[in-house]
């Protein structure tokens, strides 16, 4: 990658004023040749230009902003910027839909599903993956594994994650695609941190970091620090924290700084650790990526219990368990439940909702119909006939105990 970036830096300047894609290109070249901190400011300027949606930028000779939104979205993850990531990932899907770009829409949907997982919206992620699968079924495209892998890992479905992970690593290795291997290793680290298999999680997180690909390294670093601290590998935890700190300071977002504070807490002791835990919670509370806030309440509660502060631990663990259970982040929710029981408190079970009986596709249809969309409009988006949509609606009405679209609009769907 360094050789490619050096060659790119030597390329001729674009004719005329640089567009957002040109600035993004230069920023990424700087990251790969001079380091994350050096390239982050230029990358941020580029992403903000994409978000500004300037018509004059669209006319620049970069083939149009829409052509580069996939890279801009991915780079927002590199920058740990949850707001830019949210705007760009949603815009990428919307513009691909409006253009009928069936060649690019599936990948855009999968990236948006990953953003939804980190935001704690796992039900929405499930719908997006189902839509990607439906499009590829109609067009004859190959459905990508990574949406299902990320979702299964965060849901804590061990057998399913293991199966998809093994196939993904085998295929990516055969093609020499280290970036895809890194993504698979990142999901493997998440799963095993949730299950409490910290040695396995640590090896996987370090494997993800070896790719040197920022969109995979950045989320892998917090997994590495947590796994290493729990596996009593302080030197490996410290090394991960140093790199995470550099990137967090260069990014400057609440998401990045919150993850860095959380990681510092994990390798600290006494009042210093508590100060960092509280700082992390405050920073992450203002961030879209709610799974990390919930996991910070979890590790803070675990630390408090080991400090013998049972009542304070219960408060943090109760919050973590409630958030993680509601989001469907299964393994981490189970970990919080175990810790709560160790404090002498019985964790509450999540109340069942009528919508729990819906399949992923039925929930997707219900949410679209609840916005006022007609059966023909929903069918066009999901590549199903209006008659099929009506059949699904009859099943949805029966399961929810309602009889009309108006009642569906009044329900609080997840």
Which tags fit this structure?
mainly alpha, 414 residues, Arc Repressor Mutant, subunit A, Serine Threonine Protein Phosphatase 5, Tetratricopeptide repeat
Task: Please specify the SSE layout and strand pairing.
Elements: H1 2-9, H2 20-34, H3 36-52, H4 55-58, H5 65-78, H6 82-99, H7 105-118, H8 122-139, H9 146-155, H10 158-175, H11 178-195, H12 198-209, H13 214-230, H14 234-251, H15 254-266, H16 270-285, H17 290-306, H18 310-327, H19 330-342, H20 360-370, H21 375-382, H22 386-400, H23 405-410
Helix pairs in contact: 1-2, 2-3, 3-5, 3-14, 5-6, 5-13, 6-7, 7-8, 7-9, 8-9, 8-20, 9-10, 9-11, 10-11, 11-12, 11-13, 11-19, 12-13, 13-14, 13-15, 14-15, 15-16, 15-17, 16-17, 17-18, 17-19, 18-19, 20-22, 21-22
CATH architecture assignment name of the domain at 1-138: Alpha Horseshoe
* Structure summary, number of beta strands: 0
- Kindly report the CATH topology of the domain at 1-138: Serine Threonine Protein Phosphatase 5, Tetratricopeptide repeat
What percentage of the residues does DSSP assign to strands (E)? Answer: under 5%
State the name of the first-level CATH class of the domain at 1-138: Mainly Alpha
Derived from helix and strand composition plus strand pairing, the structural class reads: mainly alpha
Biggest beta-sheet profile:
none
Number of helices: 23
Shape: globular
Give the fraction of residues assigned to helices. Answer: over 70%
Radius of gyration: 22 Å
Unreliable stretches covering 5 or more consecutive residues: 54-63
So, the CATH homologous superfamily of the domain at 1-138?
Tetratricopeptide repeat domain
What gap, in angstroms, lies between the N and C termini? 42 Å
SSE string = HHHHHHHHHHHHHHHHHHHHHHH
Mean pLDDT: 89
